[in-house]
Amino acid sequence: MEPEDVSFQILKEITNGFSELLKLGEGTFGEVYKGLTENGEEVAVKKLRCIDPCLDDKLFEKEFKTLMKLNHNNIVRFLGYCYETEKISMECDGRIVLAEKTHRALCFEFMDNGSLDKHLSGMLLLLLCIQGSFGLRVFVDHPKEE
């Protein structure tokens, strides 16, 4: 199933205006909100911050392309995206001017149990990393013979 192009208005509606009550968390690049679609499906909406317009577009495109390639049972599904520009009026140097505001967001399936890092202790996480590195080492030392 291909991710859908979703309007910013719909994202506002399903997250109750990006309500603080529905906020799941935040990171460097934005906030994540829980949303409820018209058909009753729970989703996670990652609303991206505007830091630097040129850089933001490049990061959005890179993340979008990466997400489009992912398809695995153990990775949350990428359901949709929003990339919209709207004209807004704002004050600049004491005058009202017309400006463009870009909305960028990504939608994923909602995971009831939250982020995996909330369920792994430091020691278990370290053990998993060590085991993973041993597994990778086997592939490096013993490449598959054709």
UniProtKB/TrEMBL annotation:
Task: Please give the start and end residues of each transmembrane region.
Answer: none
Query: Does this UniProt record's set of keywords contain ATP-binding?
Result: yes
- UniProt-annotated binding residues for ATP: 47
Spell out the molecular function terms from Gene Ontology. Answer: ATP binding; protein kinase activity
Q: Superkingdom of this entry's organism? A: Eukaryota
What Pfam families does this protein map onto? Pkinase
InterPro entries reported in the protein's UniProt record: Kinase-like_dom_sf (IPR011009), Prot_kinase_dom (IPR000719), Protein_kinase_ATP_BS (IPR017441)
Taking the record's annotation, the residue ranges forming a coiled coil are none
Indicate the segments forming the Protein kinase domain, all copies.
Answer: 18-146
Task: Give the UniProt keywords, A-Z.
Answer: ATP-binding, Nucleotide-binding
Can you name this protein? Protein kinase domain-containing protein
- Look up and give the organism this protein is from: Eragrostis curvula
